[in-house]
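Z., the sequence and structure:
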Amino acid sequence: MTSIHRIANVLLASTVAAAFAAVAASCGKSEGLPPRPTEMPVRTVVAQSKTLKRLKNYPGTTASVHPVKISARVTGFLDHALVPDGSVVKAGDALYMIDPRPFQAALDQANASLAQANAQVPGARAARDLAKRDVDRNRPLSESGAVSKQNFDQMTSKLEQSESQLQAAEAQVLAATAQVETAKLNLSYCKITAPEAGLLGKSAAYEGQMVGPGYTVDLNDIQQLDPMWAEFSPSATEWPLIGEQLAKGTINATVTYGGVASISAKGTVTFVANQVDKSTSTMMLRATFPNANNAFRPGTYVDVQLELGDVPDVVMVPIQALVARETDFFVWRVKGDGTVENVRVKATIREEEMAGIVEGLKVGDRIVVSGVQKLRDGSKVVEATDAAASSAPAAESKAEKK
């Protein structure tokens, strides 16, 4: 037999042996049990209880505590504005000047009239004193008959006349004095000053324009910025809770606006309307808060958060455990056999990254917080190891892409 024939026989023997081995293996294999369900790696937490502050949020609008109209009290040409529009001013700062020359002239004339009235008083007083002395000297003579009754009556009449003239002269002094005071006031009104500190608005009149009664009266306005108000309107159905907290003491409020780069300030509720708005069934409340850096301006839409007491024994779970479905929230709760069930819950309070659950869970329930995408009711779960936890998000993202 040649070497080639020997090699061929060896290869054939190897092939046959392999075939018999495969058949024997397949015939000897027994039927196995159904495959075990796959255990899904998840992260879980145990629900805990906590006492939380009851917080209520309402949309509101800021308003100035003391807005003031800047008005012209006398009629005249506006000489010039002394500060630019939009300036922050202090109480007493000069804002506008009305042409003072006509009012200075009126004051000068009033002073002259007062001087004339004062000049008439000494003569009237001297005439009255002389008439009084004549009456006093002649009264005994009239009683004795040395002076006739007619002459004495003439002296008495002259005294009464002189007293009336003196009273008229003194009244003229009073009237002239009042005219002087009025003229001084009108002259002082030419210089319009800020009645309080605040932010000046946009002018309604400019240099050379006639202002005052009969023309443009309101020249500008000042909005006091510190402190400020935030006005908001809770539903009237919430009044029992709010009223209960007010009866216990002050209600703290946090006023916020600005979105991501939000600005907030702490204040307190300082006013409650005395009736319910019939059209909206709401009650207007007002929170007063400091605004030292003028970050808030009147008319800003803000969020007002009230602290309305404590809520004890609230079941807390991480927000990431909540699954939103239409208008409801659900969580995956791990049962005693290691499977999960989908439970609808009612979440009402949020504190940082935790949600307060008031219905659906109890303290001690184990909740899935990571790896929820593939879960179904009855899914078997196991606490993920570090490796499984690191791979689970990647697997979930691939499933979402499919």
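The longest strand covers residues 301-318. The CA atoms of residues 78 and 208 lie 5 Å apart.

Let me know what you think.
H.
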